[in-house]
């Protein structure tokens, strides 16, 4: 007897991974928007900060998923 066996990983729950990625992306995007808003920026600048934060979050998410393959 060699000890307890590990169960293989189940990869059937794809929606959990998608929700985690979406949450991460929204967290980074809204972080930029919050900083711009608290800095006294106008509404178009806050929207631009949200867009740039979303792009940065997407790039960071791509990089993290690339290095963890």
How many beta-strand segments?
A: 0
What's the main sheet like?
none
- Strand coverage percent: under 5%
Rg for CA atoms: 18 Å
Regions with pLDDT < 50 over 5+ consecutive residues? none
Which word captures the global form? elongated
The helical percent reads over 70%
Q: For the residues shown, what is the average pLDDT? A: 87
Taken in chain order, the helices and strands follow as: HH
Q: What structural class do you assign from the helix and strand content?
A: mainly alpha
- Count of helix runs: 2
Distance between the termini: 33 Å
Keywords: Membrane, Transmembrane, Transmembrane helix
Structure description:
The protein is mainly α and 69 residues long. The protein has a domain at 30-69. The protein has two helices and no strands. The chain has helices at residues 14-38, 43-67. It is elongated and about 65 Å long.
Output the keywords.
2 helices, membrane, transmembrane, transmembrane helix
Write a compact overview of the structure shown:
Keywords: Membrane, Transmembrane, Transmembrane helix. This protein has about 70 residues and is an all-alpha fold. The protein has a domain at about 30-69.
How would you summarize the topology of this molecule?
Blueprint: H1 14-38, H2 43-67
Helix pairs in contact: 1-2
């Amino acid at each position: 007897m060699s000890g307890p066996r590990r169960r293989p990983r189940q990869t059937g729950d794809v929606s959990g991974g998608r929700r985690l990625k979406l949450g991460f992306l929204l967290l980074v995007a809204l972080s930029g928007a919050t900083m711009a808003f608290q800095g006294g920026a106008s509404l178009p600048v806050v929207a631009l900060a949200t867009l740039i934060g979303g792009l940065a979050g997407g790039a960071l998410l791509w990089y993290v998923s690339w290095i963890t393959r």
